[in-house]
Target: 3D-(3,5/4)-trihydroxycyclohexane-1,2-dione acylhydrolase (Decyclizing)
Amino acid sequence: MSGTIRLTAAQAMVRWLSVQMAEEGGRFIEGVWAIFGHGNVAGLGEALHGIGDALPTWRGQNEQTMAHAAIAFAKGHARRRAQAVTASIGPGSTNMVTAAALAHVNRLPVLFIAGDVFASRRPDPVLQQVEDFGDGTVSANDCFRPVVRYFDRITRPEHLLSALPRALRVMTDPADCGPVCLAFCQDVQAEAFDWPEAFFAPRIWRIRRPAPDAAELAEVAGLIGAARAPVIVCGGGVIHSGAEAALADFALRRNIPVIETQAGKGALAQAHPMSFGAAGVDGSAAANAAAAAADLVIGIGTRLQDFTTGSWTLFGNARLACINVQPWDAAKHGAVGLVADARVALERLDAVLGDLRFAAADAGARAAWLAAVDAHCAAPAEGNALPTDAQVIGAVQRAAPEGIAMCAAGTMPGALKLLWQPSQGGYHMEYGYSCMGYEVAGAMGLKLARPDREVLCFVGDGSYMMANSELATAVMRRVPFTVILTDNRGYGCINRLQISCGGAEFNNMYADSRIEAQPRIDFVAHAGSMGAHAVKARDIADLEAQVAAARGRDIPTVIVIDTTAVPGPGDGLEGAGHWWDVAVPATGQREQLQQAHARYLANAARQAQIN
Model:
């Protein structure tokens, strides 16, 4: 008969987490990012200090951004390992809500351990406590409920006996995977309890691979067999499943073009003959032409976000079949669903389809597209002081062709999806939530997950200003990555969208804001003050040289380059991109607005109505 061991609730939590193992090796929860406050320093802080290297603790600079680092780490490990993040009651915890939403949208595992109010209520209201006049059970941590997959409030020590296994069950479930919040009452953290010794037995968490239902498999195989010109939409689920090789083989032998979402880009190397590039709003001419001509669209591991589908105007009258481990996604928009792990589904379909092979894909369109990309990304003529985003991307691509390009928000994600030519696994984009401020912290988390790869963080001046402080953390931890900071002096992406929707330039670029003077921000000095190696590139040639020079450092390198505020991701590149549904005001005095609304109505009339 098992005995017991007396520990505080916080001590029990960290001991249990320290012996939860990943199937690929090591702890599933690698460690804990922590910023302490009165709601977690005495209980959880003491426990983390005591556990030491068995569950290491790292100090961040901001609760949201250290959570971004944890999310990028999980994404870099294709959801097979994760990290925890803890903050105190009040603003520390609510700072993490944005990151929780990001993880939720992207279906990525992270464990949020949020300090909470006193379960006993004896000292109520405590410092930073949010009081609800109509509900005595509410705390600020209830904000997490809509943006996590599992929420639990720990008001007694023994709640951990069920809450912790439930949390890891969610984080390792391929269909339900996402963030978890354990709101840990601060007095309960410090309470002692006699825990069963068996509770702390090591456990390996295996991520299962659901096999397809026979009837669903037969139906989707039948659709593929009857198709004339199918196209595959590759989503992030392909990478989560480790199905890259299976997809590469399936597409090549069947001669089916593969088009990519932001999350799926990099599953195939751009050199793969069936990789036709990005789909949709920020898509390539070759990919969008293949999608428009298709009579069957096969989505694999994709949420079919509006950027992928051109707000449901791209696929015409094609049938839709969706392979997804999550039934919610498999059944979207009237799709014929195949609920299964992506790799298993492709292997089973392969067996059923026999020697089926379609007519040759349009290799000429693919080659023409790649030639256009090369020309668009080529170094500018001498004397071009303000390069485009495309020229910046081309310089980095030439200097680091095997690197992982990563980004999150602004114009650059669309430009990278359109123009970056990745090696296999050479792309990391947070575009489900498109969260400004993810970039620098995300680059640190990605590098921690992929120390073998060069990480290239593209960030605009707007996103950098929102969240940059984890540069100091990366310097302290000696985590090297390269930041390419493009300065277009404002929110250039939304400025362009504002204009395209018929609006006047207003409150996006500094020059169009209510200010007394144009800011002159010295980004080199700022990054250097946090210990990073920082330099301003004189031009595109210097940018290439600086990217190459960064490769030998053991700290982050920040390379600042001024860019033009005018071009968008597809400007000057014929056939790039597709319509995006952004509602345009129906009335207004500006002629540009009236014209934009007329265009909007014409495009909206083309939208598919099945939801």
About this structure: The radius of gyration is 25 Å.
